[in-house]
Amino acid sequence: MIAILGTGKMGEALLSGLIRAGRPAAELAVVVRRPQRAKELREAYGVEVLTAIEAAEKADTLVIAVKPQDMGRMLDEIGGRVTPSQLVISIAAGITTSFIERRFPAEVPVVRVMSNTPALVDEAMSVISPGSHASEEHLEHTEELFAPLGSVIRIPEYQQDAATALSGSGPAYVFYLVEAMVDAGILLGMPRRTALEMVTQTVYGAATMLRDSGEHPVILRDAVTSPAGTTIAAIRELEKHGVRAAFLAAIEAARDRGRELGGA
Ligand SMILES: NC(=O)C1=CN([C@@H]2O[C@H](COP(=O)(O)OP(=O)(O)OC[C@H]3O[C@@H](n4cnc5c(N)ncnc54)[C@H](O)[C@@H]3O)[C@@H](O)[C@H]2O)C=CC1
Ligand SMILES: O=C(O)[C@@H]1CCC=N1
């Protein structure tokens, strides 16, 4: 049985993805904090609702999807009950596998995962790293769980805070960009709904080109940028306003915040 401990935005995205991928509800359980949430999840997915202690005793795989700030309390609750025959997967930003391992008296296998909200449409980017007691088999099992939600790659754990900043938080930067482009459409007199449709399809099309062609983004951008044309006039303004430097600083700040959340 797979138990998901904490079923907010990401926990539910994982739960719904596993169900869409054909995993029987009987193999899944959730741990929630509010009784109303228990009722909602039981009705929507037909999954069992357990206490954290029951989940720690019954599940083969425990996926912990609470906020980093709630991690210590959750681990205190389940710590003494989890054994090395189980697998613990954490999706919390900043929290290291060694922080989790230290909360268990036994040598429990832990895998750290950073996914993102496009899991809701099976287009997540999930990056996974093993803790010191996780084997190849544990990594393969984790890949199997996350593969139906989108792409999965392995990275060394020291890169996890950077991955959190880049792909974990990444969808928010894209939505921010879309908001800004739609505002520009409004400024130019376009109805909001039309502007949003145009920008959404443009982002989707550009992302599809990047993925399908495998080309460097500079090559794809060059193909849009005609000599003395409109695009270069826009690029000059982006450069003048330091947008590239802003991205570098923003993503570095997200990486640093991840480190802080992990108590580094
Ligand atoms: N939102 C995002 O885009 C991403 C979030 N994450 C990570 O996923 C984790 C969850 O994030 P969200 O889903 O956004 O947060 P959320 O606040 O939507 O969900 C957290 C859930 O955990 C529950 N919870 C807390 N303590 C609990 C306990 N003791 N027992 C049972 N349930 C408990 C809360 O009631 C809440 O439903 C975080 O650690 C975050 O760093 C990772 C990747 C992306
Ligand atoms: O903002 C956060 O802390 C979480 C982690 C990655 C995306 N959202």
In short:
InterPro entries: 6-PGluconate_DH-like_C_sf, NAD(P)-bd_dom_sf, P5C_Rdtase_cat_N, P5CR-like_CS, P5CR_dimer, Pyrroline-COOH_reductase. The chain contains twelve helices and eight strands. The chain has helices at 9-20, 35-45, 52-58, 68-78, 97-102, 136-146, 160-168, 170-187, 192-213, 217-224, 230-240, 243-261, and strands at residues 2-5, 28-31, 48-50, 61-64, 87-90, 110-114, 124-130, 150-154.
Describe the overall structure.
- The chain is α/β, with parallel strands linked by helices.
- It has 2 domains: 2-161, Rossmann fold (3-Layer(aba) Sandwich); 170-261, ProC C-terminal domain-like (ProC C-terminal domain-like fold, Orthogonal Bundle).
- Helices cover 55% and strands 14% of the residues.
- It contains 12 helices and 8 strands.
- It has helices at 9-20, 35-45, 52-58, 68-78, 97-102, 136-146, 160-168, 170-187, 192-213, 217-224, 230-240, 243-261; strands at 2-5, 28-31, 48-50, 61-64, 87-90, 110-114, 124-130, 150-154.
- The protein has an 8-stranded mixed beta sheet.
- Helix 6 links the parallel strand 7 and strand 8 (150-154).
- Helix 7 crosses helix 12 (243-261).
- The radius of gyration is 21 Å and the shape is elongated.
- The two termini are 33 Å apart.
- The model has no long low-confidence stretch (mean pLDDT 97).
- The protein binds 1,4-dihydronicotinamide adenine dinucleotide and (2S)-3,4-dihydro-2H-pyrrole-2-carboxylic acid.
- (2S)-3,4-dihydro-2H-pyrrole-2-carboxylic acid binds at residues 93, 164, 168-169.
